[in-house]
Amino acid sequence: MIDEVFGAGHEQVVLCHDEESGLRAVIALYSTALGPAMGGTRFYPYGSSQEALDDALRLSRAMAYKNSLAGLDHGGGKAVVIGDPDKHKSEIVLRAYGRFVHGLNGRYITACDVGTYSPDMDVIARETPHVTGRTVANGGAGDSSILTAWGVFQGMRAAAQHRWGSTALRGRRIGIAGAGKVGSRLTELLVEADAVVTVTDPYRPALDALVARCPHVTVVDSTEELLAGDLDVYSPCAMGGAIGRATLAALRAEIVCGGANNQLAEPGIDRELAARGVLYAPDYCVNSGGVIQIADELRGFDPERAKARATGIFDTTLQVLELAASTGVTTAAAADRLAEERIAGVSRLRALHTGP
């Protein structure tokens, strides 16, 4: 396990254990080159501690790249708490976790993720100020899925511009996998843009609630059925690993652009997408609206300022796609290159002497 951590290139990995509360967590800081690492806390019933560690390492690296490409002065970090949030999440567990976050002395700022919500951040904040994504009643920005969906929408418009020469999504057939917070909000934006939307989600109540708001949306029973449809855009908006070899075999869409993290299930999938002529809008580029929102909260949340910055995801996505086209690399490699260049450039500035 130690060799694995050192080999992953992380600055710091903390194993958190409080026997009395039952807390078992991992906090992974990939980089603080741009500033304090920022990333959510995932509360999830992992099958093993190794699985939890692997997730923390992978997600924290992705956050470093996401924060860099979003132009934020934050490095990348992520925390995972092992357990079923419906059974094991409690005030004491969250506050115990908050003590560990506080022990990092501001090197890590946490926020919401899968299994945690703004009220949970309010509890954690009773133990540390190094937390964002809080409720509106407590000075926070509230639900970050609003700007996450807005950013994905902007990324999709940019992908449409690059592929079809127009940002218009009117009449485009878009399949969304996942009717959760981001997927449902994205659906509403696409319906307003007169797109033809098909949605799937294994949780039927989420679909029913979405259809009640958007009655013209088509619902299918599975991702397999969604992929088999005649789509222009496939939008994964649930858990990661959505684009694997089985997905590639079934995929008929020309563009992949969604809100899920870590969409590419294995190395080389980006090259296979490109070889098949599928335009992939890198996930951490287009879904950065949420982290833009929670970063803005640290300054005293201004919704218009945050939305304006998230609207800039259109330009960033277009820059990534154009770099890939002009250099012959995949869009995923182009996004990584831009993120790494910014991290290296800002890091170099630390060598400049600024006086006493």
TrEMBL record:
<dbReference type="InterPro" id="IPR016211">
    <property type="entry name" value="Glu/Phe/Leu/Val/Trp_DH_bac/arc"/>
</dbReference>
<dbReference type="InterPro" id="IPR006097">
    <property type="entry name" value="Glu/Leu/Phe/Val/Trp_DH_dimer"/>
</dbReference>
<dbReference type="InterPro" id="IPR006095">
    <property type="entry name" value="Glu/Leu/Phe/Val/Trp_DH"/>
</dbReference>
<dbReference type="InterPro" id="IPR033524">
    <property type="entry name" value="Glu/Leu/Phe/Val_DH_AS"/>
</dbReference>
<feature type="active site" description="Proton donor/acceptor">
    <location>
        <position position="78"/>
    </location>
</feature>
<dbReference type="InterPro" id="IPR006096">
    <property type="entry name" value="Glu/Leu/Phe/Val/Trp_DH_C"/>
</dbReference>
<dbReference type="GO" id="GO:0000166">
    <property type="term" value="F:nucleotide binding"/>
</dbReference>
<feature type="binding site">
    <location>
        <begin position="178"/>
        <end position="183"/>
    </location>
    <ligand>
        <name>NAD(+)</name>
    </ligand>
</feature>
<dbReference type="Pfam" id="PF02812">
    <property type="entry name" value="ELFV_dehydrog_N"/>
</dbReference>
<keyword id="KW-0547">Nucleotide-binding</keyword>
<protein>
    <submittedName>
        <fullName>Glu/Leu/Phe/Val dehydrogenase</fullName>
    </submittedName>
</protein>
<keyword id="KW-0520">NAD</keyword>
<comment type="similarity">
    <text>Belongs to the Glu/Leu/Phe/Val dehydrogenases family.</text>
</comment>
<dbReference type="InterPro" id="IPR046346">
    <property type="entry name" value="Aminoacid_DH-like_N_sf"/>
</dbReference>
<dbReference type="InterPro" id="IPR036291">
    <property type="entry name" value="NAD(P)-bd_dom_sf"/>
</dbReference>
<dbReference type="GO" id="GO:0006520">
    <property type="term" value="P:amino acid metabolic process"/>
</dbReference>
<feature type="domain" description="Glutamate/phenylalanine/leucine/valine/L-tryptophan dehydrogenase C-terminal">
    <location>
        <begin position="142"/>
        <end position="351"/>
    </location>
</feature>
<dbReference type="GO" id="GO:0016639">
    <property type="term" value="F:oxidoreductase activity, acting on the CH-NH2 group of donors, NAD or NADP as acceptor"/>
</dbReference>
<dbReference type="Pfam" id="PF00208">
    <property type="entry name" value="ELFV_dehydrog"/>
</dbReference>
<keyword id="KW-0560">Oxidoreductase</keyword>
